[in-house]
Specification:
CATH class of one domain: Alpha Beta
Order of helices and strands: EEEHEEHEHHHHEHEHEEHH
CATH topology of one domain: Rossmann fold
Helix content: 25-40%
Strand content: 15-25%
Radius of gyration: 17 Å
CATH superfamily of one domain: P-loop containing nucleotide triphosphate hydrolases
Number of strands: 10
């Protein structure tokens, strides 16, 4: 589904936050992208969505070269992005926030589907409440469902557990894992919470200096042999 080869990208002219970055993700896979702060994880998600320019290399999504596409073009092609910090519309109600996710896909019915409120039932209870007045965990749930109502082929998640109480993190992991399994949703997860990673991911990619330095599909072995975690995540 996603093939990225030797990508170079950065925020300033000539900068190489991503420096020869390559990965492949198959349809239906749940993949975790891990690494210390500053290694380029968020930059890759932004480059894939079109928020950061790609200066070298190729990005192929669903058989189409998409490097240089605008964010709205990526959304229409079936890529949804839940950014770090959630970035919901604080003054909009829950329902209005969810409608924003639908508006990114003009080929879909322009209303919030009923099933959206079944993913995290608290959103049904808070349907008319302003997003900014909800807890951080509820805002994260809102941001995730806002992405899901666009019915993506690929869901990008940047630090979904950040600043959220553990029981909501567990709920998010359970729900996303279930959706991935039942609907075949492809997920790329950037995350520091290893319990969430180990509970969701089928494959882990570790970044260093703007590129993939190590990967494994033996995810559960990281519980008993955490050497890669210490090598690539410890400060």
């Amino acid at each position: 589904m996603l093939n990225v080869n030797n990508v170079v990208a950065g925020y300033l002219a000539g900068s190489r936050v991503l420096d020869g970055f390559s990965l492949q993700i198959a349809a239906g896979e749940v993949v975790a992208l891990l690494g210390r702060n500053g290694m380029g994880k968020t930059t890759f998600l932004k480059a894939l969505m079109g928020h950061v320019g790609v200066t070298e290399g190729s990005v192929n999504f669903a058989g189409e070269e998409v490097a240089g596409r605008k964010p709205y073009e990526m959304a229409r092609r079936g890529v949804a992005y839940v950014p770090q910090g959630r970035e919901i519309f604080s003054d909009f109600t829950v329902e209005e926030n969810l409608l924003m996710g639908v508006l990114g896909r003009p080929d879909l019915p322009q209303k919030v589907p009923d099933w959206a409120y079944e993913i995290f039932p608290i959103l049904q209870e808070r349907r008319k409440q302003r997003g900014g007045s909800m807890s951080g965990g509820q805002q994260q749930q809102l941001a995730i469902v806002r992405a899901l109502v666009s019915q993506p082929k690929l869901l990008l998640l940047d630090e979904p557990s950040e600043g959220i109480q553990p029981n909501i993190v567990q709920d998010i992991g359970r729900v996303l894992g279930q959706i991935a399994k039942e609907q075949g949703l492809t997920i790329l997860l950037v995350e520091q919470n290893m319990e969430l990673v180990l509970g969701m991911a089928q494959r882990c990619l570790f970044m260093e200096n703007g590129a993939i330095a190590y990967e494994t599909d033996q995810v559960q072995q990281l519980r008993t042999d955490p050497a890669p975690i210490h090598r690539y995540l410890s400060v």
